[in-house]
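User: Quick sanity check before I run a bigger batch. Here is a single chain. Can you write out its predicted 3D structure?
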Amino acid sequence: MFFIGLVVSMLFSSVSAQGEWHQVNVPITSIWTVPWETFGPFTYPAWGWPTEPGVVALKEHDSQLVLHERVIDLGDSRNAGMLHVAIPSQPDAEGKPGEGYINKEHVVPCGKQTFNTIMVVQALATKIYAGRRSNGTQAVFGSVLQHNELYTVGGQVVFTQSNSTVAMVDKCDVRVITAELESLDELRAVVCANALKFVGMPYCWGGRSPFVGDFTPVPAIELEIPTSVDCSGLIHLVMHSVGLTIPRNAGPQAACMQPVEPIAMQPGDIFYFKPLVAGGTRHVLMYLGNNQAIEAFGGLGAQSSVCISNVVDRFGVALSAMKNGMVLFADHPTRKCEVTCGSFLNNPEKLQAMRDAFLANVGYQA
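Assistant: Done. Predicted structure follows.
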């Protein structure tokens, strides 16, 4: 396992010279694997498993970004309405920034601005107010608020935004992320508490955002961006919410977590399923403690949601009897998977590297 922060920081410097930095200026935007020539996938919700009837072309819906996350324009998009971008906050197993295409209207140039204080939204949604007559800007869970000055007034945090305007947000809705790590127990508790906020939300292929809206299809003439999480999107987003950068997808997440024996699992640790059938979809869950696990499950119909299950019911075997590499019917009643356990939260040195990577990606400078 490598030090994610070191590798990402090195690539952060090399990639930054290739294009202009932008940051998201809408609550949620989607990342696509292709530069759509029309609005295409923006016109329908992406809920459910890709093979489920009525779910269309979801394989191209790759991930999502929330307010103020940063990307780098690589400058070679074939569609003038979209940008081909590098995404330092969503690396692969080697620490290389993810890539994809985003709606050009959903980002603004930000240069290489730096900030000495970083907050991350912990509520599923909150409002940022700039002035007494402001209607507020919506910020969803995981949104990054970068600033250089802040103080509290009652239950509000008052801060200076990147555009030099003064704004405020409810103190209970945000978490200040510092270069100094919290205790391991605190990180585990917050990660699990944040994951629980997603229970009941629909599964969304490529999703990495809190679900907003009604869980019903919309007419194609409406420009709707799909929201909610897939399995690895949930894990990535809750780690991001406490200021840790990990790989975005299930396979790279498994490659970078530190192996843990099932009997030693602690809250916030990860179960990883690797299908025995070539080309099968990989899957991750988070252990909550007390023999419970949470996952964004891509089953059919009502089962396609973020849900909690008992470990014995889910795997057919207790943690005390489970071994890494054991083959179970873990992701589908008819498909066997190899199950392994691991953690991002049990090594202070690697945790510090992940925190350093997070801060570098959002423009922090002490």
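Residues 285 and 295 are 5 Å apart (CA to CA).

User: Great, the batch can go ahead then.
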